Amino acid sequence: MSTYLQARINKFINKGKELHGDHYNYDKVAEMYESTENDIKIICNLHDFEFLIRPKNHIAKGRNGGCSKCLSEKINNKLSLIDIENIKNENVKKNIDINEFFDSNGNIINIDDIDDNKSEYYIPLYNKNKEIVGQTKVSKNIYYHKKINGKQYFIDGLKNLDKQKTGSINKDGHAQMYIDGTTIVFHKFIVTQVQNKTYNSHTHNIKHINGDKLDNTNENLNIVTASDNAANHKNLKNRDGEYSYVKQSKNGNWEATIRSKTGNSPSLSITYKSKHHAAHHVDLFIDQHKLNKSKNNVDPQYLTDFVKKDGKTNSNPEYKNIKRLSDSCYLIEIRRAINNEKYYYSKRFTTLNEAVIARDNYLEKLKDIEFNLKCENMPLLRDDETNECYFILNDNNIYIDEEDYIRIINNKYAWNITNGYVQDSSGRTLHRFILNHTDKDDVDHIDRNKFNNQKNNLRICTSSQNQQNRGIKSTNKSGYTNVGSYRNKFYVDRSANGKKFRISGCCTSIEEAIELHDIYDIIYNNSNIIHNPTKAELNKNIILEIYNTIKNNYDNDLINNQSRKNITLFIYQQLNKRK
């Protein structure tokens, strides 16, 4: 870090401590500090909370330093909104000074004078010259509020009479207010502080259901996803502001549209002559597919003659490749390319049921054509000597079980040989495909032939077990895996629990080392790489009998490699004594 940058950081920290005292911890400032315009990390000592903020905003006068928890705590301490119905309750009323309540113009209100018959409440909004430039619509419990700490905080900006600060309209068209010099957007304040709801501001927004940003009544505010809110703003440009996902087309009809971004989620496109019917179809679609979207809640008086239409939708595969042209005309259009040959089918039907049957029959025909072509290109053959089944791929014989051939042919991805393994164009190997294995464990070819994918040659094993079944290395002079020699003596290399260890010191010939190797594999179930199966089978029962007798004398031999080594050597010595 340059001396100049370090000096700027020190200057910032000193100014922050001068302004906020010991309220904040600046230990992580140097990690991200580049200029006053870039975010840095600061920790609030009071809440042990780490947050990001620009340096210039942290040391700006009149700000609380940037900790959102401190700001929320300050709001809760400064403002107490009440439910008017509870105030009127006699048990509550006698404990409250009725002269503590004010309307949005700062006039003292007697509790008994509150107008219950008033249906709409509006609060004025001002510009810098204290001129009224608009008004925001609010609910009753927002309009009437409480006097806090001897100061009159007004909902039309929570105006403090000492500072003469008022509510206003921000550049986005939302009503905003001030609390101790901090600007707060009105609808966010109502949802979080009055309705006591929480949401992630990075993934969700607060939506004005009717599209009016100055209508901040409780029933007009709803928490939705950011994409849903963006779709609502887009629809506002083409509709009259009454319903979501409904817009008027050039011919005067009303279109109900819900678009799918991924292609997997349901989408809707339908046209009605009435906007109320289109909006109601949207509600039915949202209920049917349980979508996280705001409903229109159309007044039932507009739905007396509603008849639901069959919309064009990708949510039901039954209607794929079928277009509804009218109530008595359905068009099928199918285009496919199989082995560089193009197929096209187009026909009209009077009912949907007829169209579905015709489409399914044609698709079955295409499947048969595709299957026959694949069988011609990759036919199933049989070895005359071993009677084993195989097919030829890139001039290599790929051995499989006959029962797996149909599945392999019907796989929608093409097969090829990559890095010595048979795999399809999606990257899935044939041996995993045959066992339908998707877990992290390996699938091992027991005979180490990657082209032998018969089930009896495949086993699911750990990566360690798979590594043990490798071929002989070019540096191996013994001719057997895991068996080596040093100064005319032979040893066995094994591995377990992620560690390698060597069993040595008693083998003077390659035959003795092979016997020691096979004893270990019999004890610990590695029978697929036994070097002398005939002799191992003869001694298997004796080896297991000795092992069961002595294993309790060793601590945790399954996880302790030293115990494994000692047990193997002991059994080897006992076998030699019995000869």
How is the largest sheet built, in terms of strand order?
13-14-15-16
Q: What gyration radius follows from the Cα positions, in whole Å? A: 39 Å
Helical content (DSSP H or I, runs of 4+) = 25-40%
Shape: flat
Please indicate the percent range of residues in DSSP E strands (runs of 2 or more): 15-25%
Query: How many angstroms does the end-to-end distance come to?
Result: 76 Å
Largest sheet: 4 strands, antiparallel
* Average of the residue pLDDT scores: 77
Uncertain regions spanning at least 5 consecutive residues: 78-100, 146-165
Structural class based on helices, strands and sheet pairing: alpha+beta
Count up the helices.
Answer: 17
Total count of strands:
29
